[in-house]
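RETRY 2/3 - previous attempt timed out on the joint model. Re-submitting the same 755-residue input unchanged.
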Amino acid sequence: MDRRDFLVISSSSMLVCNSPLLFATEGWGDTKSLITHSKITTNTGLSRRQWKTIVAVQDHLFPSEENAPGARDVNAKAFFYAVLSDAGRDGEDRKLIKEGLLILQDICWKKHKQTFIELKHDAKEDTLREFENTANGTAWIMTVLGYIFEALLTDPVYGGNPDGTGWKWLDHQPGFPRPTEDKRYFLL
Amino acid sequence: MSHDFDVCVVGSGAGAGPIIYELSRAGFKVIVLEKGKYFTEKDFFKDEMATSLRSIYTPDLREQQHVVELPHGDNGWRSKPTHNSGWDFWNGSLVGGSSNFMSGFFHRLKPVDFRQLSEFGPVEGANIVDWPITYDDLEPYYDKVEKVVGVSGRVVDHPHQEPRSSKDFPYPPTQEHPIAKHIDQACDTLGYHAIPMPRAILSRSDKGRTACSYSGYCGSYGCATGAKGSSRAALIDQAVATGNCEIRAESMVSKIKSDTNGKITAVEYYDNHDKQHQVNAKIYVVACQAIETSRLLLNSTGPKHKNGLGNTNGLVGKNLLFAGGGAGSGRLTYKSFAKKDALELHQFGTFINRSLQDWYVIDDKDFGDRQKGGTIDFVHLHPNPVSRASRQINGENGLLWGKELKNKIHEHFTGGKYIKIEAFCDWTPTDNTFVSLDSKVKDKWGLASAKVRVDVHVRNLQTGWYLASKGAEVLTAMGAENVVSFAAGAPPTNLVAGGCRFGDDPQTSVLDKNCRSHEVDNLYVTDGSFMPTGGSVPYTWTIYANSFRVADKIIDELGGENKNINL
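RETRY 2/3 succeeded.
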């Protein structure tokens, strides 16, 4: 068994063995929606509450509408989790998101004495606009939106865009052949 | 002295493929050392994650990066490593190299490109020279590429049509999008000559390769049918089939070793377990794309090559070329057309395939003296949806989000058909665009990374602006909205050549006219490095043609076709 095979097997085992604990820590709960984007995963370093905040931000940035899918309709949370738990990445995104969440919560507290999740729509908007103007605020929001776009418009084999709902909304025609499970980018 | 192989080729892209193909078919034993993996049609999918968002066909910049050096202040330069910089000079590390991902816009150079100094005179601040060969020397090989690699198209008369030995292309044009008809009509009105763009794409199945499937995703994507004339699909697969060619993928060449006479004795490389090996051959061919070729030569010092292999005159890496030019776009808004026409415009999958070369030489007193111009290609907006959505994120007062962003994205995708202008002009060679070795940044094997200094000559911008504005005229005449055009100053990192100029004078060039090192008898360089000026078209066809030309020279040097050929 070479290193590559070991990593595939050990990462699978790790997911099976550790997933419940990992998800419990991070407030995931629904292990059925697990998406992987890597052979090796790591803890995202985000708490249950922080994941709830991310979901609230995603909903605000890309809301669900009757005729247009929003972040929650394309599994944006699970997709983002898969990205941040990819141990093959350099951790810059994890660091950016974690630090940004602290600043965002700080703004919420100073302005509204509430958490982001508890805010009404206009207060969320007001908070995010102020957050946008902080040092890494724009980069943070662009990162969150960027992965929503990936969940919306990449091939469903990566866990977002269920039944091509994002493509249908935008009348977008995917190319062919489409990637199969065993030919996802991290398995090539 | 016995050798492991007749020819050792470093790299497997467009500059390497014809050497590999011709030498293997001539019966010589060929070894190919390619840094990347051996992917085939079975591995290529229309997957934006693989090609663009996670970039799995290019090295991880944490392990292998470049250093880019740009003007800073009045006379200074500032360098920064490319990791996390937004710069990435890699274009495809895999068997077949970046030719796997080309769009296959194939234009030949024209006779005037081979004698720019004689034709137009010097340009201040630029190192323009004539080539040591003429168009006539290369024409038979352009023709060969049409037939062997496979080029589809249709020859039409126009003022800058270059001479051809074959009447027409061996393959009919690929299917055209209805936009082509609109371009033709607009050009007729304006008195311009729209020409069908030749493509390195098979329009009918041939050579064991399947015709284009018109999936709508071509450039940046590996071809799943084999229709695209990548070095691997068109040449290397056939070379391997002879039994004379061995491909060693995931083999990173670290150094070319030379003896006290200056002759190459072996090539050292790391395998995918980072174990070092070496191999020797009678002749060595380096073709790992311009920047990495210069880097490898500079890193390959030896007893007689203190400044790098074949670099006594210090010219290895100098006069690097990108492609100058301009760009633009416009949108044919569906609601401005009758329903039938709008439906037609909405079609997806076929190619626009239209170019203009009316200003390949600009003879316009309002613009200045008669001078070199270029080519305008009309192409679809790249279909990658995540990329398209991401470009809608900026508003007038900050980022957009919420319903406002969603409405903008929806309108962008569904409101009309975008057409892009890509204008190509020469990248004017200067003393301030070159490759050297960085003194601090190294790759994961401890080898010095290439440092790429980039400076833009004002001529690039002037010509790029001129051409792009002509393209914009056409879009406007077609009824396009939101038409914009501009000169592009930043170097397109996927269009790179130069660094090892060929020429007759060993004092002013690195290679002789047959692309053999002036100093090292058993070294050839056959990627785009040889080009002293770039011409005003994408490089790939010329690189292929020149590599076929050099292959003939190498076969001659090895004594002609090997009679023990095993085909």
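Chain A is about 55% helix and 0% strand. Closing ticket.
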